[in-house]
Design a protein that fits this description.
By secondary structure, the chain is mainly α. Helices cover about 60% and strands about 5% of the residues.
Length: about 500
Amino acid sequence: MAITTDSTATDVVATDAVPESGASPSLVTLIARTVVPLAMIAVVFVVMVRTAAAPLSNPDTFFHLRFGREFLDGWSLRHPGHVTSWATADWVPTQWLPQELMARFDAWFGLPGVAWLAGLQFVGLALTFVLVARRWADRVVAAPLVIAALLACAPSISMRPQVLSYIATALTAGLWLAIRYGSRRSVWWLIPLTWVWAMCHGMWPLGVIISCVAAAGFVLDGVVRGPRAIRLAAVPVIAGLVAGLLTPVGAQLLPAVLLVNSRGQYFSEWQPPNFTMPNCLALLAILLVTVLVMVKRGADWTTIALVGLAAGFAVYSSRTVPVAAALLVPVAAYQLQRVVGPVQRLRAAERAFVLGAAAVSLAVLAVLVPRTSNHTPPQPDWVTSSFEEMPAGTRILNESVFGGYLMYRYPDLDFMFSGYGDIYTSDELETMSDINELQPGWDDAIRDAAPAYAFLDPDTPLGYALIHSEGWTVVQDDKDVVLLAPPPGWLAAGD
């Protein structure tokens, strides 16, 4: 189904015109409208390379690697196992495809390969934003908009599959906007896009929501009527059903997405955003300027609905702030260009520059990562020897922030806590929270878990409490971590 609109739908049309009846632009104009914006885009790719070339330090990267390794080694996608005996939830994998790819790169190239794959995500995100924004705005508008949007995403740009959700969000919004304003592209492309998205990250239902909101805007704007409106409204529904039913995970993927809200209270990224932070301020700037243009020049229902949805994402949680930014990239580009005038077409030379810059970035990154990313996070010398001497299956009470790396580096041991909430039941998450925050009964909860050791940061409340608890003994210590043994008899009581 290709949906087009009449000529009154937009005042931003592509043009090949040059100023003053074909006269060549002045040097100042050339620098301001071409050289500076392209330089800004080049700097964006440089920043992406520098970010990816740093040592892998995000602990979540490592538990994704561990899960990917387990899937490659035989875990069933419909009935996956557990990386700790303390977690007992019957969980559903929502990020298995990039996890397997990460594990493949780790097996083939080691951590430098994983770092390069992270760079591929980062450069892909920047490239998507550039091309989606440039579709509707000149370079002078698109370049600063892309920088602001990437700043809004900055805290969440890491080697995690969620970056793929930001790319998919921008593509989804961009496709609806293109169809709304005259493209003959088919909206049915949303179905395979959503299907792939559902295998990459658990935020894929947000794409269905964006599509439903856009389709409602089309109907309110009178772009489609009657049977065409029904067919258009069916596309998001079909996309959601295909994504939820026809991936290798099967139908259990649909109810799995409903569990996020019930567990969000235990993870800071699902808490309300702090609008004094730079990334939130960048998003607010995009929203404010876009709304001001809409108020001054008017806007159709499709744009109003999408901007309103982006505002909802902006205030819902810290984790959806980047989603709001990605959604706004095409919408803000279109609205801001209305102030500037007709958009000049993306010509072959400019497209070659942008794509070439992305390719060169990845080539440079491939040269850098073997020297910059070929080591794991630092730790005292005694850590590896201590853990390697422990019998397989030894249960260890640990800080959740360490959990991802520990379960990757020492897969034979049973580390209790990690930041991968899907594998825990709600009761287990509550117990984890109670222990870490020293809520009443925290010591009894540890006794019931019967860990053979505790590996903690001595400066955290839990670490300090156990160090000074009667019966706990220090086995090894360092200013950053301490290995503790529980009081005699705890293991027997736990068994």
